[in-house]
Write a structure and sequence with these properties.
It is found in: Cytoplasm. Its main location: cytoplasm. The protein has ten helices and ten strands. By secondary structure, it is an alpha/beta fold. β9, α9 and β10 form a beta-alpha-beta unit. The longest helix is centred in the C-terminal third of the chain and has 30 residues. The model has no long low-confidence stretch (mean pLDDT about 95). The structure holds 5'-O-[(R)-(carboxyoxy)(hydroxy)phosphoryl]adenosine (KG4) and zinc ion. 5'-O-[(R)-(carboxyoxy)(hydroxy)phosphoryl]adenosine (KG4) binds next to α5 and α6.
C-alpha cells in the first residue's frame, strides 16, 4: 500500500510517500520559520495561507521524486489534530478532496502519534511495548505505549512544554525563533559549573513536569547579571548551559522513573526537543545503567514532517481504519 502523508498542523508543510513494502519512498518539507521570524512565534493566519500556497507543489515534488503519479496512490493520511485549526484545515481539505477525486482511502492521524512512531522509520525499529517521551513546542508527556493506539498518559507538563521553555529562553537571550537549536548552540560554549538551576518537580514523586518556574529563574539570573553589568557573551553561554542542563536532567530523571515504574525496557523519544544532542547523550548514559535502550528519530524527523504522518497513517490504514468526516481536531488528547 502506498500512502501519501500530509502534515500541516503548525508552521511546517510536510509531505511524504510511504510504501508498506518498500518503506519511505520520498519526503519533502517546507518550513515557514522565516515567515514567522519577525513576529517571534507562529502567526496562525499566515501559517494557513502559506500551507495553501505550498502544499500542492510539495505533493507534486514528492510524487516526482518517487517516480510516481497520483493514480499510483492507495491512500492519503493527514494530520487531523492537535494543532492550529486553520492550518489543519488546509491539510484535511486537500487530503479529502484528493482522496475523493482518486477514489482512494483517507485517514486523519493524531500529530503526536506521528511523532511517537517516527523512530520506527529508522533501521532499528523499537518494538512495542515501550515508554514514550514526547517533547515538542506544544507537549511534554510521558506515555506508556502497549501497542498501536494503546496509550496511557503517565505524566505531562502542568504548564509550559519543554520546547516552549527553550523558545522563551531564546527570546530572553535575543535569539531568533525557534529557539531550541539556538540555545543549545550557545550552551555548547557554556560552563556547566557556573550556575546551577532548579530541577523542577524532581523532589516529589510522579512524572509530571513544570518548566515555567525554570524559565522565570533564567530571566531573574539574566536580569541580575545585566544589573551588575556582567552580562557578557560568556555569561549568556553559561546561562544557556545552566538552563539546558536543568531541562535535560529533569527529563532524564522522569524518564528513568517512568521506566522503573512501568517495567518497560525501551524508551522512544520524539518531538522537536528530541533533536537535542545533550539530551540524547544523557538519556543513553542513564538508560544503559538500567539495561534499557532509547530510540530516536533521525534529525529531520524529530521536528514536524510528513514522513511520520504517512507512516502512522499506513499502520492504521492497514488495520482497515478510515476517516469519513472532514473534521479537524485542534484539541485532541492522545489518550
Ligand atoms: O515537534 P516540533 O517541530 O513542533 C511541535 O509540534 O511543537 O517541535 C518544535 C520545538 C521548538 O520548541 C524548538 O525550539 C524545539 O522543538 N527544538 C529543540 C531543538 N530542536 C528543536 N529544543 C532543544 N534542542 C534542540 N536541538
Ligand atoms: Zn510536532
Amino acid at each position: 500500500m502506498r500512502v501519501l502523508g500530509i502534515e500541516t498542523s503548525c508552521d511546517e508543510t510536510g509531505v511524504a510517500l510511504y510504501d508498506t513494502e518498500h518503506g519511505l519512498l520520498a519526503d519533502a518539507l517546507y518550513s515557514q520559520v522565516a515567515l514567522h521570524a519577525e513576529f517571534g512565534g507562529v502567526v496562525p493566519e499566515l501559517a494557513s495561507r502559506d500551507h495553501t500556497r505550498k502544499l500542492l507543489p510539495l505533493i507534486d515534488e514528492v510524487l516526482a521524486e518517487a517516480g510516481m503519479v497520483k493514480s499510483d496512490l492507495d491512500a492519503i493520511a493527514y494530520t487531523a489534530g492537535p494543532g492550529l485549526v486553520g492550518a489543519l484545515m488546509v491539510g484535511a481539505c486537500t487530503a479529502h478532496g484528493m482522496a475523493r477525486a482518486l477514489g482512494i482511502s483517507v485517514l486523519g492521524v493524531h500529530h503526536m502519534e506521528g511523532h511517537l512512531l517516527a523512530p520506527m522509520l529508522e533501521d532499528e525499529v523499537p518494538e512495542f511495548p515501550f515508554v514514550a517521551l514526547l517533547v515538542s513546542g506544544g507537549h511534554t508527556q510521558l506515555v506508556d505505549v502497549a501497542g498501536l493506539g494503546e496509550y496511557r498518559l503517565l505524566g505531562e507538563s502542568v504548564d509550559d512544554a519543554a520546547g516552549e521553555a527553550f523558545d522563551k529562553v531564546a527570546k530572553m537571550l535575543d535569539l531568533p525563533y525557534p529557539g531550541g537549536p539556538q540555545v543549545a548552540a550557545l550552551a555548547e560554549r557554556g560552563d556547566t559549573a557556573r550556575f546551577r538551576f532548579p530541577r523542577p518537580m524532581t523532589d516529589r514523586p510522579g512524572v509530571d513536569f513544570s518548566f515555567s518556574g525554570l524559565k522565570t529563574h533564567t530571566l531573574t539570573t539574566l536580569r541580575t547579571l545585566e544589573r551588575d553589568g556582567a552580562l557578557d557573551e560568556q555569561s549568556r553561554c553559561d546561562v544557556a548551559r545552566a538552563f539546558e542542563d536543568a531541562v535535560v536532567d529533569t527529563l532524564v530523571i522522569k524518564c528513568r522513573r517512568a521506566l522503573q515504574a512501568s517495567g518497560r525496557q525501551r524508551l522512544v523519544v520524539a518531538g522537536g526537543v528530541s533533536a537535542n544532542r545533550r539530551l540524547r547523550a544523557a538519556l543513553d548514559t542513564a538508560l544503559s545503567k538500567l539495561g534499557a535502550q532509547a530510540f530516536y528519530p533521525r534529525g529531520r524527523f524529530c521536528t514536524d514532517n510528513g514522513a511520520m504522518i504517512a507512516y502512522a497513517g499506513a499502520r492504521r490504514l492497514a488495520l482497515g481504519q478510515r476517516t469519513d468526516t472532514l473534521q479537524p481536531r485542534p484539541r485532541w488528547p492522545l489518550s
